[in-house]
């Protein structure tokens, strides 16, 4: 009772110091929980979760090759991979004992007609050079449509494509093109072959779509040629594309379809093996193997990774500055209290009870701050982490217990520091013996008396 009463009185008497210690402890605990949670989430996302992905793999021209593309030069189609090319690489992958499934898209430019006009581009070029102002792209499966490199889209009117049916004419058109041409679900449109305008294809609008994200550079309103504007894309199933005779291997110029096969793998390990196998099969340097799904995943966790990097620095700063502040406040608490300690010991208070009092004075604000900071950090971290990183930063009981354990150890260490004046004070210095002035000896007194007697002036000297 003595210890608690005296400690409480001291804490109240020095309220600013007590509050500063508690607030510092709250800040250290809450920021430590947040930073550790973000760092742990980033580590998990870039290791465990990353390795658990089921990536897609595609073989595409490199950026250097794509930079030479001329949409008005049909000789570019020599860079299109054929079914024969893909068979070579797929065989090499199978020989490496890598399991995979696949889906694909096929694309050609097509000519517009009076029934459907494309959205114009900055460059007006003859369809004889570009192959047409519209792009017809077919999807083998829904997964292929969802991985569309023009971007994800949603149906705003009508229905999506039926990949299991045998529809010969159903297509999707963009809302922008539909508005330009006053088209609606059920409307009939006609497009023509890229190299032979006399070959036409009559199609029926099954649905109207809109993209859910922004266009990449050169694929929106900034497209050089109309066919490169993604709003000018007409989508169909592969069956519709093939039944109209567009999947050909002996075509010329823009009639040669751009075949893009997307391989679906079971793990990142298999993806790495896939890349090695394709390269071993002598993939030309103008192509590269990439994974759209892994690239998308890495882009998604990039904000989390960046915050984790900041939090590593923040954590060091918080621990260093916070620890220094608490140490300084603890020292301020114990300095100039030697008289208080001495008085207590003189009236019979044991050194141990005084040490306990000093420890309690340190433990109360720091432990309360630790508990409150842990509560605040635990409650706020998931929401704050999601808003800042757009990724989940969940709390784990292991992290909470680790923070509490380390925090409690730090509080105890500070409490021990606060007992140093009590431990180092020596009892022998508490009461000093009185200082006595020695009495002068008889001989000394006599000498002084004689000296003064010799110095007594005579009457004659006094008269002077």
Automatic annotation (TrEMBL):
Subcellular localization, as worded in the UniProt entry: Cell membrane
Compositionally biased spans, kind Basic and acidic residues: 449-464
Superkingdom as given in the UniProt entry: Bacteria
GO molecular function: transmembrane transporter activity
Residue intervals of the ABC3 transporter permease C-terminal domain: 317-428
UniProt keyword list: Cell membrane, Membrane, Transmembrane, Transmembrane helix
Occurrences of domain MacB-like periplasmic core (ranges): 21-280
One Pfam family named in its UniProt record: MacB_PCD
Transmembrane segments: 316-335, 356-379, 399-423
Location of region: Disordered: 434-464
Biased composition (Low complexity): 438-448
InterPro entries: ABC3_permease_C (IPR003838), MacB_PCD (IPR025857), Macrolide_Exporter_MacB (IPR050250)
Cellular component terms per the entry's GO annotation: plasma membrane
UniProt topology in membrane: Multi-pass membrane protein
Family of the protein in this entry: Belongs to the ABC-4 integral membrane protein family.
PANTHER family linked: ABC TRANSPORTER PERMEASE PROTEIN (PTHR30572:SF9), MEMBRANE COMPONENT OF TRANSPORTER-RELATED (PTHR30572)
Protein name in UniProt: ABC transporter permease
């Amino acid at each position: 009772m003595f210890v608690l009463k005296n400690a409480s009185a001291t804490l109240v008497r020095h309220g600013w110091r007590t509050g500063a210690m508690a607030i510092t402890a709250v800040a250290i605990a809450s920021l430590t929980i947040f930073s550790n949670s973000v760092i742990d989430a980033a580590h998990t996302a870039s290791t465990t979760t990353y390795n658990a992905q089921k990536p897609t793999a595609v073989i595409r021209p490199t950026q250097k090759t794509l930079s030479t593309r001329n949409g008005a030069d049909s000789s570019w189609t020599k860079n299109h991979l054929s079914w024969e090319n893909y068979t070579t690489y797929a065989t090499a992958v199978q020989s490496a004992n890598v399991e995979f499934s696949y889906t694909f898209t096929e694309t050609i430019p097509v000519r517009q007609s009076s029934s459907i006009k494309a959205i114009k581009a900055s460059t007006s070029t003859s369809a004889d050079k570009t192959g047409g102002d519209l792009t017809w792209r077919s999807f083998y499966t829904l997964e292929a449509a969802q991985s569309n490199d023009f971007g994800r889209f949603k149906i705003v009117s009508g229905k999506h494509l039926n990949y299991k049916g045998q529809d010969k004419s159903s297509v999707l058109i963009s809302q922008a093109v539909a508005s330009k041409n006053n088209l609606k679900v059920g409307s009939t449109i006609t497009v023509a072959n890229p190299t032979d305008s006399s070959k036409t294809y009559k199609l029926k609008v099954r649905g109207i779509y809109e993209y859910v994200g922004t266009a990449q550079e050169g694929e929106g309103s900034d497209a050089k040629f109309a066919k490169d504007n993604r709003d000018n894309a007409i989508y169909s199933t592969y069956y519709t594309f093939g039944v109209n005779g567009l999947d050909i291997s002996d075509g010329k110029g823009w009639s040669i379809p751009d075949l893009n096969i997307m391989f679906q793998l079971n793990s990142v390990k298999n993806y790495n093996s896939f890349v090695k196998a394709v390269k071993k099969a002598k993939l030309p340097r103008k192509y590269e193997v990439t994974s759209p799904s892994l690239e998308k995943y890495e882009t998604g966790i990039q904000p989390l990774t960046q915050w984790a990097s900041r939090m590593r620095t923040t954590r060091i700063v918080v621990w260093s500055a916070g620890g220094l502040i608490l140490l300084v406040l603890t020292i301020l608490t114990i300095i100039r209290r030697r008289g208080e300690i001495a008085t207590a010991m003189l009236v019979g208070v044991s050194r141990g009870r005084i040490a306990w009092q000093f420890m309690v004075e340190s433990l109360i604000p720091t432990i309360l701050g630790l508990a409150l900071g842990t509560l605040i950090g635990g409650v706020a971290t998931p929401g704050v982490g999601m808003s800042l990183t757009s990724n989940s930063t969940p709390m784990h009981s292991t992290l909470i217990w680790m923070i509490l354990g380390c925090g409690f150890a730090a509080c105890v260490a500070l409490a021990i520091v606060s007992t140093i004046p009590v431990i180092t004070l020596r009892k022998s210095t508490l009461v000093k013996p009185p200082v006595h002035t020695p009495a002068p000896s008889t001989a000394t007194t006599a000498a002084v008396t004689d000296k003064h007697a010799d110095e007594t002036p005579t009457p004659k000297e006094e008269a002077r």
